[in-house]
Amino acid sequence: MRFLDPARYEVVPLSISRDGEWQDGRAGRAGPSLPGMLSVIEALQSVDVVFPCLHGRYGEDGTVQGLIELAGVPYVGSGVLASATAMDKEFTKKIVAAEGIAVADSVVLRAGETEVSTSDRVRLGLPVFVKPARGGSSVGVSRVDDWADLDGAIAAAREWDSKVLVEAAVPGREIDIGLLQQPGGRVIAGPPLEINVGAGSQFFDFEAKYQAGAAEFVIPAGLDPVDAGLLTRTARRVFEALGCAGLLRADFFLTRVGSRTVPVLNEVNTMPGLTELSQFPRIWQAVGISYSGLLDHLLNTALAGR
Question: How far apart are CA 306 and CA 301, in angstroms?
Fold first, then answer.
């Protein structure tokens, strides 16, 4: 809100408390509660465009997008189906794999399932990463280097989701691609960002993502131009395959398969992190688009029509 030009925007802030209560108020303090969904829809209908700056379940997964659709107001980001699909790592993998895009091998454990068969363990190898299927910010994610620790990792992931992925580790460089859709519909890509995690973290976990200095972002990543082009084209294919709109951050592992360099999709974020430490704003800052300019771009694209 601080970076929205007050000469251009009249901001109507809505927030949701931890117990699910919608509130109308200014940044930094809670306002009066909105009594029921009808009042929420009326509040949404009072504006020209909505910026649903929410991450994870009940914000990035199509639920709030559906509410805004009912209100009939333009909004920033992907629609209901793309948001829901991209939030579910199982279905993201299935859709992009059908388009010929590489993904990490994995096993899906649905509610009540706790066993990874011997044959699957052999196929996946160690280490594996255990993660909630519909989560974000690496919450509930564990690295498992010994199968004896698998049950505990599954239990930790199940605290956040009934469906869990057990995923093979992919050796390679961790590269993010940020995409922006322009008002005319064309999708542009920012410079590749490489994540280098500090010695205190085994992987890019919650602490590494949100503690200053815990990870280093290199923008642009030191890539061969051919590899950089391959990553950018693959990210655009992911955007199209999932039916995204507005923006997307696609996270890859750049690995070697024989003599070929292959981008393996790790996950996507239809509303990527937007803190001052986050990758997406920093990607665009590297090419001269300020944070305010990025917000303007996203709102202009939403107003131009979905």
Answer: 8
Judge if 96 and 175 occupy the same domain: yes
Q: Which of 168, 190, 220 is the last residue of a domain?
A: 168
CA distance 137 to 205: 7
In a domain, 269, yes or no: yes
Question: Which residues partner with 143 through β-bridges?
Answer: 129
Q: How far is CA 86 from CA 154, 271, 298, in A?
A: 22, 10, 19
Residue 156 within any structural domain of the chain? yes
> In terms of C-beta density within 10 A (0-12 exposed, 13-18 middle, 19 or more buried), how is residue 187 classed?
middle
User: Phi and psi dihedrals of 139, rounded to 5?
Assistant: -70, 130
Q: Is a pLDDT exceeding 80 seen at residue 34?
A: yes
Query: How confident is the prediction for the chain on average, in pLDDT?
Result: 91
DSSP assignment of 156-205 equals HHHTT-SSEEEEE---SEEEEEEEEE-TTS-EEE---EEEEE-TT-SSS-
Q: Indicate left, alpha or beta for 220 from its phi (over 0: left) and psi (-120 to 50: alpha).
A: beta
Provide the residue range defining the domain that includes 140: 106-168
Furthest-apart CA atoms within the chain: distance in Å = 63
Q: Do 183 and 271 sit in the same domain of this protein?
A: yes
Q: Give CA angle at 29 (27, 32), nearest 5°.
A: 105
pLDDT of 137-151, one tens digit each? 678 999 999 999 999
- The pLDDT assigned to 206 comes to 53
Residue 228 CB-half CA count within 13 A: 13
Question: For 207-218, what is the mean pLDDT?
Answer: 67
Residue 110 pLDDT greater than 80, yes or no = yes
Q: Is the pLDDT of residue 27 over 90?
A: no
Residue 6 lies in a domain: no
Q: What is the CATH number of the domain that holds 200?
A: 3.30.470.20
Provide the pLDDT for residue 201.
54
Residues 40 and 87 reside in one and the same domain = no
pLDDT digits (tens, 9 = 90+) for 172-205: 999 999 999 999 999 999 999 999 876 555 555 4
